[in-house]
## 1
Amino acid sequence: MNMALTNLLDFDPAQLAAYCAELGEKPFRAKQLQRWIHQFGVADFDQMSDLAKSFREKLKQNAAITAPAIISDHTSADGTRKWLFDVGQGNAVETVFIPEENRGTLCISTQAGCAVNCRFCSTGKQGFSRNLSVGEIIGQLWMAEFELRRTKGVEPGPKGERQITNVVMMGMGEPLLNFEPTVTALKLMLDDNAYGLSRRRVTLSTSGVVPMIDKLAQECPVALAVSLHASNDNLRDGLVPLNRKYPLADLMAACRRYLDFAPRDFITFEYCMLDGVNDGDENARELVRLVKDNPHPVPCKFNLIPFNPFPESGLVRSNNKRIKAFAQILMDAGIVTTIRKTRGDDIDAACGQLAGEVQDRTRVQERMQKMAEYQNKYGKNFGRIVQVPT
Ligand code: SAH
Ligand code: SF4
């Protein structure tokens, strides 16, 4: 793309209106333009037939609609479809579409790599490369929605059946450590002149960046999933290094505060099932005390994720019997608990397996600098591999 051109995918509705005003156009023109982009998936200004020719000419000279380039596009035997996107300088991110009977869920990435470095996550093991821009985040939805429609022969625009009904920010990266672009992209997902998704059907998943949970509540509350993975601080310190900065008591308090603003009346806790590490009966009972049997409970559901192994993780997935027994203890305590089906295994699209094979080893220096910056901000253990207590 010509660098002088403004990428219109970077703008939320208010910013697009401001940009159009700069070009001397009225606010309703911005709405029309936004519908062309986000409801019809059109990137060519000449096709925007109800915009004045003079406006289209101005746009052609100054702007473009550019999503990240697709490197690969695979469909799994179970219908899961995975795209790998080029985000420049040897970095790639992944987007996964998971079709189900009455909904279509898109799992999107917010960063190339991740600095949190959870023990069981291959994205974390790659280190942090960079934050994605708004255009790169919303571009994943833009491309996937219209590509799916093209594949299925569904017409673009509000009349055609929407392919993506749910979005989860559970791909690569920690969305709350790329806050502004993530929130701008969320606003577009919710906007009626763009994707018009319900707040309840857009879920942000976080490893627990406490101050940013509060900020999200103020700026754009959507459904919240929290990656818990441990029943006490000692265990969690070893699995999710960010816990040393924001321990469980602070995280639980943030979840309670968030619920005052959330579109749903529960938090989803994700819990990756690791054989012999966090999957004992005593861990399940400790979880019940953590979220329920105490003076300050957190209304919640649990989503148990069978660990997806990757080379050199040194960790093993809990067996199915163990996962069921663990789930039973939570359910007996009255907590709604689901076990996540593993989808897209055959194309490496399962949680925590994303882009493992395109690891970029060339930009170590830059990553180290970024890591130092985060450690300054979040404490010296940020992003460190900490031994898992056994
Ligand atoms: N950074 C955010 C969102 C992306 S990860 C977060 O951590 O919440 C999305 C989910 O996949 C998280 O719950 C994460 O803990 C889980 N996950 C990561 N690696 C995994 C693996 N190898 N197996 C199973 N789940 C994994
Ligand atoms: Fe980052 Fe989430 Fe992976 Fe942890 S689980 S390293 S926060 S992407």
Note: Residues 114, 118, 120-121, 170, 174, 205-207, 227, 270, 272, 305, 307-308, 351-352 surround S-adenosyl-L-homocysteine (ligand 1) (CB under 6 Å).
## 2
Amino acid sequence: MFFFFSEKSYLCTNFQPQRAAIQPIETTMLIDKIDALLKEVSELQASNAAEIEQLRLKYLSKKGEINALMAEFRNVAADEKKTLGVKINELKQMAFAKINELKEQAETQETGSDDIDLTRTAYPYMLGTRHPLSIVKNEIIDIFHRMGFSLAEGPEIDDDLHIFTKLNFAADHPARDMQDTFFVRQSDDDVTKNVLLRSHTSNDQTQYMESHQPPIRVICPGRVYRNEAISARAHCFFHQVEGLYVDKNVSFTDLKQVLLTFAREFFGPDTKIRLRPSYFPFTEPSAEMDISCHICGGTGCGFCKHTGWVEILGCGMVDPNVLDACGIDSKVYSGYAFGMGVERITNLKYRVADLRMFSENDVRFLKEFEAAY
Ligand code: DAH
């Protein structure tokens, strides 16, 4: 027997619908309606926001098609509700997705349209600046580079052997004290195996000399660490630039001339230098170098504590013990070394009142140096 599942056949008196096998007509019609709407929604088109709003009202508003379906859904037999519910949900989600898609399309079309004003001034970009310590460090490197020094960098975490022992530090030197230095690892039986945050860049000398034979002419910038209470004038880390020159017949005169050239290049051609005798375990003789105070021109001011001179570095002739400890024959070669604090030199140039400002990352401070390089 053939019958069409139509309203008419359903109404035939001799036709007894069997609920389990055949759906009632309301359900079937509802399914057809949902299918038709699914097709319709999947093909929706709109060219502007107003049209999209119309579509939203048509399908998704309170009085829209999908809500109307919900009203019909309430009359569906309980055992059909599940399948139909899933279908209506699918339709609803598709309508949402489609309308959102149309909105996005319209927005990108709008921004891509010809109402862009190409003559308008661009939004200002925040320009980054170089850190004042980097500016000064680069300037120092540059000056020594012109005098034939090349760049060599060593480790910030190193062993006692390279930071102290090979640099001729006595076993009981205070720099080895817990109070002064940050130790990373301490060896029970052999002090030279202690590992620490270097307290000066002079370990770059031992590291470099171990793997290079003269002529050596290097400049080594880097960060160093000391166990200091942090204040406006001291910090637990700061920066140094180390210099090392080793060759045959190197004399103190060479050292003095190189340092004078540096001081004049960096602080100006009228700068004077003076060398005061001092002591470092790794140089003999040793000296500290002052420059004439370029703030008062040497007449005396608060900055130079009314002496007319400001100390900027330590230096000296490399101690023969250091050369020998690093595998360089001290009977054939001699050399000089120096080390300067980058913060100190930056302060002389830019007069930063508080050392902590260098590591606070306050952009207002950094912006002061926008024009400095
Ligand atoms: N290492 C010294 C310090 O941290 C600075 C120094 C002095 C380095 C004399 C040198 C030098 O190379 O010859 O105070």
Note: DSSP finds twelve helices and ten strands in the chain.
